[in-house]
Design brief:
Elements: H1 6-19, H2 62-65, H3 70-83
């Protein structure tokens, strides 16, 4: 697929999806789930388990990534093994 047709393709998909909705509903596009990472953002509620989970995330529970998929644990362990550590992406705080 060529990158120069992605935007047109997405516009077409939104238009087709909108045609399936009642007049008082709209297709909503957001970059991430609004409460992503906040306490209680999953249902049922899951808490991060940095010591006992596959991802070892301090912020995001494994169940929110993909609960029970057999490849998830292996893929996550392999990434951590190749890197030599778990993935740790944090936004630096600004000094005021």
């Amino acid at each position: 697929m060529h990158l120069n047709i992605v935007e047109a393709n997405m516009k077409l998909r939104r238009k087709e999806a909108q045609l399936q909705l009642p007049p008082n509903e709209m297709v909503l596009s957001i970059a991430n789930f609004p409460r992503l990472g906040c306490p209680g953002f999953t249902f049922p509620e899951y808490n991060p388990d940095p010591e006992g989970s596959v991802s070892r995330s301090r912020f995001f529970p494994d169940q929110a990534i993909f609960p029970g998929h057999p490849r998830f644990a292996t893929l996550t362990r392999n990434i951590r093994s190749r890197r030599g550590s778990k993935i740790d992406i944090q936004i630096p705080s600004k000094e005021i």
